Amino acid sequence: MRNAESLYDLRVDGDRLWRRLEALGEVGAILGPNGERGCARLALTDADREGRDLVVGWMRDLGLAITIDAVGNVVATRAGTDATAAPVMVGSHIDTVRTGGRFDGNLGVLGGLEVMETLEQHGISTRHPISVAFFTDEEGARFQPDMLGSLVYVGGMALEDALDVRAADDNARLGDELARIGYAGPTPCPTATAPHAYVELHIEQGPVLEDEDITIGAVTGVQGISWTELTIVGQSAHAGTTPMRLRHDAGYVAAAITAGVRAIAREMGGTQVATVGRCELLPNLVNVIAAKATMTVDLRNTDEARLEKAEASFHALCDQLAKDEGVTIERRSLARFEPVEFDEGMIKLVQRTAQRLGHSTKMMPSGAGHDAQMLARVCPTSMIFVPSVNGLSHNIAEFTKPADISAGANVLLQVVLAKAMEGAV
Amino acid sequence: MRNAESLYDLRVDGDRLWRRLEALGEVGAILGPNGERGCARLALTDADREGRDLVVGWMRDLGLAITIDAVGNVVATRAGTDATAAPVMVGSHIDTVRTGGRFDGNLGVLGGLEVMETLEQHGISTRHPISVAFFTDEEGARFQPDMLGSLVYVGGMALEDALDVRAADDNARLGDELARIGYAGPTPCPTATAPHAYVELHIEQGPVLEDEDITIGAVTGVQGISWTELTIVGQSAHAGTTPMRLRHDAGYVAAAITAGVRAIAREMGGTQVATVGRCELLPNLVNVIAAKATMTVDLRNTDEARLEKAEASFHALCDQLAKDEGVTIERRSLARFEPVEFDEGMIKLVQRTAQRLGHSTKMMPSGAGHDAQMLARVCPTSMIFVPSVNGLSHNIAEFTKPADISAGANVLLQVVLAKAMEGAV
């Protein structure tokens, strides 16, 4: 085995990683009006299958041992020297939102593959095995809740319940779609073995690193997430003849909730955010008061008590509007995750490693949900953030500079090596 | 010719009229969850053709002279004794909104047919010819502007422009759809002959008559209508990682406009109403800030100056929101009609006739647009309103009691007779 000094000098091949990001981005590629190169690879669609097949092919080329579990999570492992040691795991997801980018998720998976190839190329053995995983349906854009694959992986949701989830768009059953694309695997899920540690490289998906001109974020935890679907039922009527005071306008109530949760977030300040991303009216005609509105509310905060306060304000707003307008509002929780705090040792390891490699760094929470928050339930976990240009993600204009991609992958490599060498003599 | 006294005693056959309403309502019939019997017969669809064919068949059975003009308006005429006299016209439309009822429009057309059949049955000749018309695309649910057929009929819109209008849903061209269903007729449009008078029987489509327990509304005019389509372009981004202050959220702006026009209508009071019936977000996902919103705003007032004030407030609201949120708002006028005042003699004739027949009556404006407002440009015009149960219209639960239908049709008969006998010796 090489000595620590020479391992410290090991670096990934940034061009090779970039080429893999480009190749995977071509699967489900969408092009914007200004030449933006986005991606639409919704979970368990044909495009997702094609993306999975491409990544599994690369895993196979590297001689990794591949397992596919019952919810479609794919784990590829490079053996360690100690047969009893638990693997150091890296990973993320390769599904995207409907109009997504080419870095979100993909970077963590392909960054992990690049770590594997770098070790292989330099003939480096580690005590712990190293696994790279991609988890099913992280985005939740087609099947809810989001982070479904990693949630089931750590035992947070029963496999049977996950397989029975229905797609928001076409009502397809998750288990059926998994079988259809050939990724209903034989490996049991949840996993029998907790990893030794988990680290996920990811784009920030927000504007903070770029604003402060910082290259590496050492991620301290993940905001709590509360997703609610509302079905508002009013009374359709003629837009010209129904006096304002006699209306039961589901569209107006949807709008008042949308404006209301914005006001709640503004008043609470801090990390509180509130978004209505989805809203549909029925019958959706210019001169008919809407009989029905369906919408979602996305609330997030790093602090559980404050997230609960935001939820309480939101529910009080709904109750008041339902009463004032004479409509009913049915509420259904689509996802609810408490804020997650990552392992202090892992956070500091990411920070120290970034500093050692000469990068500016800051400790920061994640505004988005990530598979890492599920793995944090079963092993020491942290994440490595790299800057998003203009803070954009879930957008075809999503972009991270090649230099930042390489910087993040090298931090990933060194963090993985440090964990995989633990206990080695 | 009979004397005036015996004509005064003439009454329609309410059952026959009701049966025709039922039969026409079966074309494009939709059933509600509680047994409501609605109708979906969008302009120039196959269902509209079927409805037109049914009504034209009844016109033919009555031996009327039928003309179909270049924009698909159908006029059926019963000859008068004076070959030089202009016809007294009655009519309305038979297209419906997507989830409409079985009375809106249909009543004016089939009430007119019932007047014809009553006169025929009793062998009554009139000096003026009597015409019953149904006009193309009154609702504007498929092709905008609404009241398109009657607008072209009176020369308010060039025929070529009308034929080039595109459907909101499938982009079909009006002229092509007209030809496809066989209703691109040979009669020139606009009409060469202004009617002697025009009177339209219609359901109120609002709650006023029912609330005040009144049977017949003598309609004084029609509210001015202002329809605007807005396209709001912001910036899609991740719902979790984008601080509230950095958002360019098209969905939020749509909601703020919806809530804002409600506030404008409430503050202005009087007859001012404001409705956002249509709103669509893109990409319409729970965790993505909307990049784009498309919506409509429907403003109405009986007073032109106040309608202009509402429009100015609405535009100022849009300008302010666009600036505050950093989005662009493109505005396109879909329809703009000034308030219309009907002919005083015609209004009073409706009122006096209703009183003579023993009905409670009130003078009232119409909150909805009607073909009558177009005909008012070329001849003395008024309308007869009958109550809508629960004030509902543009709704599958739309209903008017048979007794009120008969009452309205008898007022129509007597008003038509009075006008058609004018100048007779």
Layout of strands and helices, then pairs:
The structure is a homodimer of 425-residue chains.
Chain A: H1 4-8, H2 14-25, E1 29-31, E2 37-39, H3 46-61, E3 65-68, E4 74-78, E5 88-92, H4 106-121, E6 130-134, H5 148-153, H6 159-163, H7 174-180, E7 197-203, H8 208-212, E8 216-222, E9 224-233, H9 250-268, E10 273-275, E11 279-282, E12 292-301, H10 304-325, E13 328-337, E14 340-341, H11 344-356, E15 361-366, H12 371-375, E16 381-386, H13 402-420
Task: Report on the architecture of this protein.
The structure is a homodimer of 425-residue chains. With 425 residues, chain A is α+β, with helices and mostly antiparallel strands. Helices cover 35% and strands 21% of the residues of chain A. In chain A, α9 packs antiparallel against α10 and α11 packs across α13. The first copy, chain A, is elongated, with a radius of gyration of 23 Å. The model of chain A has no long low-confidence stretch (mean pLDDT 95). In chain A, strands 3, 4, 5, 6, 7, 8, 14, 15 and 16 form a nine-stranded mixed β-sheet that branches. The longest helix of chain A has 22 residues, at 304-325. The first copy, chain A, has two domains: 4-222 and 339-420, Zn peptidases (Aminopeptidase), CATH 3.40.630.10; 224-337, Alpha-Beta Plaits. The interface between A and B is large, with 71 and 71 residues.
